[in-house]
Amino acid sequence: MILIKKGYSKRATVSEYETILTGTKGNKEEIRERLIALKANINKEENKNSKEVLKKRLANLEGKTAIIAVGGITEAEVGENRDKIVDCLNSCKSALESGILPGGGTSFIHAIKILEEELKIFKDDEKLFKEKYKLNYESIFGVQVLIEALKVINFFPQ
């Protein structure tokens, strides 16, 4: 067996099922090469289980992992809390895979800013604004109502 030194760690915790290295330092170029090799292996791997193992290995090497400690007073409570955490994680993974992004309300915030800027232009030069957008006063009032509705949705203070 050939051992190759890839780096150092401040602490290593080894158990029956896992090894946790913390405070790691290594050659960034070698790590980058290993990441590229793992990504190539993932792309050409056909077995779904092997692909998942490689993805976990890649995430660990990239540092995109987290440990969530779940506790409770009774064993039943611990199990229930663990199930809730697993459900949340699976929901987040599913949402991200299907293209749902966190913070959807930010689009409303951006819309509010743009609409308020346009209304400011309207108040400064009403004739230019009407020529540009061909709007009447009822439409302007509708824009103001829309701004207020978007503010309510995002719970903006007045």
Report what the structure shows:
The chain has 158 residues and is mainly α. It folds into three domains: 7-62, no CATH class; 68-101; 106-153, no CATH class. Helices cover 63% and strands 10% of the residues. It contains six helices and two strands. The protein has helices at residues 28-44, 48-62, 75-97, 106-124, 126-133, 137-153, and strands at 7-14, 19-26. It has a two-stranded antiparallel sheet. A hairpin with a 4-residue loop joins β1 (7-14) and β2. α1 packs antiparallel against α2 and α4 (106-124) packs across α5 (126-133). The longest helix is centred in the middle third of the chain and has 23 residues, at 75-97. The radius of gyration is 27 Å and the shape is elongated. The mean pLDDT is 78.
List the helices and strands and how they pair.
Layout: E1 7-14, E2 19-26, H1 28-44, H2 48-62, H3 75-97, H4 106-124, H5 126-133, H6 137-153
Antiparallel strand pairs: 1-2
Helix pairs in contact: 1-2, 4-5, 4-6
